[in-house]
Amino acid sequence: MSDKFTLVTEEFWVAPQLSEDDIREAATEGFRLIINNRPDGEMLGQPTGKELEATAKEVGLAYAHIPVSGAGITPDHIRAHREARSLNPGKALAFCRSGTRSIFLGAYAAACAGAPVEEIIEKAAAAGYDVLAHRPALEALAKQNMSDKQAEPSS
To answer: How many angstroms separate the Cα of 133 from the Cα of each of 9, 99, 121, 139, 148?
Structure first.
């Protein structure tokens, strides 16, 4: 396993900027989905999303480009992340420049899906990322998830 790929949960991993070779390696390591959270052109020399997508498809991986800029994560980012994961179950590898935007987006999506906030914070910390300052947002998203579940009609 590449030292670049950091386990958060068995199904969700993060990494700093990936190369085409990293994507090929991810395919051999059982990943099913690559999530690119980096906007194109953020840094000179960075591969484009189209180049990385072509490599992912070449090796049989699903690919989602969900660029998160310095302006922050929006509900649309969270929806796109959750949709990409639901359409492509199994191991997902999300990346950005350092992995930080990817861990935050993954944490928000997990809270929306009903994962316990304390567990989200602990797993991020174990992966080397501090999301503690995001606890209020994570709790609000988790609470909204619970409200949405209570509002669903019973079968």
So the answer is: 20, 17, 10, 11, 25
The Cα 34–Cα 42 span in angstroms is: 18
3-state secondary structure of 146: helix
Pair 40, 48: CB distance under 8 Å: yes
- Domains delineated in the chain: 6-151 (3.90.190.10)
Question: Per the structure block, which two tokens stand in for 50?
Answer: 């189209």
Task: Name the token pair of 78.
Answer: 């969270």
**Strand (E) positions, 79-142?**
92-95
pLDDT of residue 150: 53
| Helix, strand or coil, per DSSP, at residue 93 | strand
| Pair of tokens at residue 151 | 């509002």
pTM summary value: 0.92
